[in-house]
Design goal:
With 286 residues, this protein is an alpha/beta fold. It has eight helices and twelve strands. It is globular, with a radius of gyration of 20 Å. It binds adenosine-5'-triphosphate (ATP). Adenosine-5'-triphosphate binds next to strand 4 and helix 1. It comes from Rhodococcus aetherivorans.
Length: 286
């Protein structure tokens, strides 16, 4: 156990030496406290705090290399943190055993930029794969899954608007359709948290909007906690409840999307730290 950190009950997470760090109230599902992640000499995250609530969609924005993917991976334990505390769905990720991390990952769905479907399998079977964690033995072919799971998987495909393509091989679908199948597969996991790493980076603007709309709908309807990395400021402003900006591994912005102008959001992408800019300098379009 990491001696720097202590947990005192479900609603109390503290980092030793920082009395003001009690966090994780009733509906805080994701909590990162002073998280630092180093890869050798590279500081990918530098003391990042983040809280995300149930039914909240938070978008992480930032230049390439600012630490967005690293933060997502620290949330589900794919990366161990160098310092700090992470709690997700009631599990202290930074202190979790391998078995606890396996359990946690059933609750935390992950949506990837490149969909990660099995191309030669049907859409239905790809979705069913999301429910494998609930079964004791592996399955080969959609027909070998219990009927109730097939019905559930079809419902998820219906929800993403693709029930009529259930029997089609996944590699015959467009990118946008494949990402919708991947989201249906994640829903089959019955997650409480959904992490999405640039889920629309490979899609055209129309399909990107469809996928963001879908993520927003499942966030609200299923009361999911969604953390999503994006590079498209307009999509973030359109669908996020809250926008968190990272720069050089540090959090430089954390505001409700409705309170942000486009110019303020774009500031995250400027090479010069807006806080360091002289007061007389132009702020760019808003
Ligand atoms: N496995 C790793 N080993 C070494 N360095 C890494 C590793 N993963 C990330 N980094 C470094 O950590 C920093 C943050 O990378 P990260 O991938 O989190 O950025 P990002 O904001 O997600 O970038 P992008 O928008 O390009 O995906 C970068 O300097 C990167 O080179």
């Amino acid at each position: 156990m990491n001696s720097d950190h202590t947990v005192a009950g479900d609603e109390d997470l503290t980092v030793a030496g920082d009395e003001d760090l009690t966090v994780a109230g009733d509906d805080v599902v994701v909590s990162a406290r002073r998280v630092t992640k180093k890869f050798g000499d590279t500081v990918a995250l530098d003391g990042v705090d983040l809280e995300v609530h149930r039914s909240e969609l938070v978008v992480l924005l930032g230049l390439s290399g600012s630490g967005k993917s690293t933060l997502l991976r620290c949330l589900n334990g794919l990366h161990s943190v160098t310092e700090g505390a992470v709690e997700v769905a009631g599990t202290r990720v930074d202190l979790a055993s391998r078995a606890e991390l396996r359990m946690l990952r059933r609750e935390v769905g992950f949506v990837f930029q490149h969909f990660n479907l099995v191309g030669r399998l049907s859409c239905l079977e790809n979705v069913l794969v999301g429910g494998l964690g609930r079964l004791r033995l592996p399955r080969y072919g959609a027909a070998t899954y219990p009927k109730r799971m097939r019905t559930e998987a079809l419902d998820h495909l219906d929800r993403v608007g693709l029930a009529d393509l259930a029997d089609r091989r996944a590699d015959t679908l467009s990118g946008g359709q494949q990402q919708r199948v991947a989201i249906a597969r994640t829903l089959m996991q019955r997650p409480t948290v959904l992490l999405a790493d640039e889920p629309v980076a490979s899609l055209d603007p129309e399909n990107a909007g469809v996928v963001m709309d879908l993520l927003f709908r499942v966030c609200m309807e299923d009361k999911l906690t969604v953390v999503c990395t994006l590079h498209q400021v307009d999509l973030a402003l359109g669908w996020a409840h809250r926008i968190v900006g990272l720069r050089g591994g540090r959090k430089v912005l954390d505001r409700p999307a409705v309170e942000l102008s486009r110019g303020e959001a774009m500031d995250i992408y400027r090479r010069v730290d807006p806080a360091a800019r002289p007061a007389s300098a132009p702020t760019g379009p808003s």
